[in-house]
Amino acid sequence: MKLIVCENYEEMSEKAAEIIKEQVVKKPDSVLGFATGSTPVGTYDKLAEMYKKGELDMSGVTSFNLDEYYPISNDSDQSYHCFMERQLFGRVNITKDKINMLSGEAEDPSEECERYEERIEEAGGIDLQILGIGRNGHIGFNEPDTDLEAKTHLTELSSDTIEANSRFFENVDLVPTHALTMGISTIFKSKKIILLANGRSKLNAVRELFSEHITTKSPATMLKLHSDVTIICDYEAYSEASIGIDIGGMSVKIGVVENLKIIDKRIIDVTSGMTEKDLIAAITSVCAEMRKRYKANRIGIGVPGIIDENGVTSANLPFKDCKLDEIMSRALGVTVKIENDANCAALGEQAAGAGKGMRNVLMVTLGTGIGGGIIIDGKIYSGKGNAGEIGHMRIMPDGKLCKCGKHGCWERYASVSALIEMMERAAAEHPDSILADAAKDSINGKTLFKAMDMGCDTAKHVFDEYIGYLAAGIDILVSVLDPELILIAGGISRENEKIIKPLSERIGGAVPIKVAELKSDAGIIGAALL
Q: What span, in angstroms and rounded, lies between the C-alpha atoms of 53 and 47?
C-alpha cells in the first residue's frame, strides 16, 4: 500500500482529486467508483472546481456508486442519489446515462445487487475506486465480519455506523437499518483503489491498516491483499503525536509523544531572572517548532503548585494566577490542557510505566515534600483541583509545624527533607557513629543507606523510624482509596528493595508497592495524555 499523509483535510482532498484527474486525463472513458459519506465531499468540491476552470472533462466517464441505504426513496434528501447529485454529479459533466447507482426503492434487493454486478462487468470493471473508512474499519457498508468473497449485497448496519450517520437525519431512529453495498470481492476487482481518512476518530481504523493483521473485524485490513491501494489521510487520522510539557523549578522538559513513547525531547533551563512572560515565550517557541514538525494537535502541561479558576500559582516559578493554558492556546492555535505535575507523572506511569495495565494507581513522590498522583478508573482524580496534595495530610495532630501553617503534615515526617532532619539529629546525638562520620562532608538521601550498608545501628534506627512514618501515611491512603498498586517515585526510590520490602511489610502486604519506572519521562508522557 502507498501512503500519502497530508497536513489537513484540504490537502487530503486536493491530493485525491489530482489522482482522479490524472486517471481521467490518461483514460477519458475511465470507470470510476465513488464513495459517499462526509470524507470525500472535499474531493468532490475540488473536482467541481477543476471542471469549472476547464481543467477537467468527465464527459466520457462511467460511474458506479459504492452504496445506498435500503429501503429509502431515491428522491429522499438523505439518499445517496441526492447526495451525489448535490456533491458531484450536478457540478460536473458526467452524462446521466453513464451514472450508475444502487436503488433504495428496489422491490427485490437481491435482484438489484445482481443487476449492479452485471453492469460493472459490462462496463469493463472499475478503473479507480474511491473509498472512505468507518470508525470500525468498514469500507462501503461492509461491516465487521463481512465475508471476503461477498459481492454487492444487502447488509445490516452496525449500531456504530447508524450512530455515526445519524447526523444526516433528524434523529437516530430515522436512519435506515440496512443498506445495499458493493462487497469486498467487488471492490477488490477494481484496478486501483484510493482510501481517504481524516480526523482523530479514524485513527484506530487507519492504525489497523498498518498492523500485521488482516481480519474481518476490520474489513479495510483486507485491502492489504490488493496490488494497488493508495491511502491518503491527514495527520489526525495517521498519527496521535501530542506534546507533553513537564514544568519544574529548575527546568522545563518538553517531549513529542507517539504511541506512549517519547520520540523527541527538549529541555529549557529555568533561570532565576526569568519572568512569567520569558518562560512562556521560551516554552511556546519550542512547542511551535515541534507542532510544525510532528503535526501534533494536542498539548498538555504538568505544573507544580495550585491550579484553580484563577490560573496557576507556583512558589518556585514566576507564575501567579497565570492563565497558562489559555495564553499558550491562543499563541499556538490548539487546545492546551493543564494539570498538576504529580498527577501527570502518575498518569504516565499508569499508561506506560510500572502501573501499565492497572486502572487504579496511587503514586507517592518523595522529595523536598511529598507529592501525590491519584488515578481512578484510568483517569486523574483531582477533586476540586488539589486532591493530590497528600503531603499535607495530617498524621500527627499536634506534630511539627509545616510551611502550610498546619501541624503534623505527612511530609514533615516522611519526605526526603524530613529524613535529612532525622539524620542530622541522630548524627548530633551519636557523634561517634558511622552515620555521623558519613554526614560530615554532605548529607542527602544516599547518606543513610551508605551508613546502613556499613553496619551502622544508628542509621538503621533512623531508617526504621522513617519507614514507620512513611507507612503511616500510606496506610491512610490505602484505606481511603483502595488502589490496585502504589508507586514510589523520587530520588530516594532508587534504593528500590531497601525501601519497598520493609515498607510492604509495615502495611501488611495489603497492596503491591513498586518503584516508578519512567523517572523524568513520566511527567511528559502523562501531560501528553491529558
A: 10
Helix spans in 364-481 (H):
411-414, 416-429, 434-438, 445-453, 457-481
pTM score, whole prediction? 0.60
- In order, the DSSP letters of 255-286 are EEEETTEEEEEEEEE--TT--HHHHHHHHHHH
Mean pLDDT over 382-394 rounds to 83
324-348 in b/e burial notation, b at 16+ Cβ within 10 A? bbebbbebbebebebbbbbbbbbbb
Distance CA 512, CA 259 (A): 27
Q: What is the mean pLDDT of residues 440-457?
A: 91
CA 413-338-318 angle, 5° bins: 70
Bridge partners of 310, per DSSP, are none
What structural domains does the chain harbor?
2-238 (3.40.50.1360), 242-334 (3.30.420.40), 359-518 (3.30.420.40)
DSSP 89: I
Of 34, 18, 30, 40, the closest CA to residue 62 belongs to 30
The secondary structure of residue 407, as a DSSP letter, is B
In the DSSP assignment, the letter for residue 484 is: S
Mean pLDDT of 255-282: 93
Q: Average pLDDT, stretch 10-32?
A: 98
Say whether 409 sits in a helix, a strand or coil.
strand
| Rounded-to-integer distance, Cα 196 and Cα 204, Å | 14
How many whole angstroms separate alpha carbon 66 and alpha carbon 88?
Answer: 14
Determine which of 40-44, 142-146, 358-362 has the lowest per-residue pLDDT on average: 142-146
Asked if the model's pLDDT at residue 166 lies above 80, the reply is: yes
Task: Give the Å distances, CA to CA, from 265 to 198, 238, 243, 278.
Answer: 27, 21, 10, 20
Contact 404, 370 (CB under 8 A): no
* Cα distances (Å, whole numbers) of residue 421 to 418, 433, 444, 448: 5, 16, 10, 12
> Residue 41: which H helix or E strand, with range?
helix 41-52
Q: Say how far apart CA 360 and CA 43 lie, in whole Å.
A: 45
- Which whole number is the average pLDDT over 139-148? 84
Where do runs of H (alpha helix) occur along 69-143?
A: 80-84, 109-122
Q: How many angstroms separate the CA atoms of 488 and 336, rounded?
A: 29
Half-sphere exposure of 117 (CA within 13 A, CB side): 20
Q: How far is CA 258 from CA 244, 245, 265, 300, 348, in A?
A: 10, 14, 12, 13, 13
**Separation of alpha carbons 165 and 173, rounded Å:** 11
Rounded CA-CA distance 478/508 in Å is 11
pLDDT-based confidence at residue 495 (cuts at 50, 70, 90) = confident
CA distances to 29, 63, 418 from 60, rounded to whole Å, are 4, 10, 83
Query: Which residues are marked as active site?
Result: 67, 136, 138, 143
Q: Which residue has the cell 471542471?
A: 51
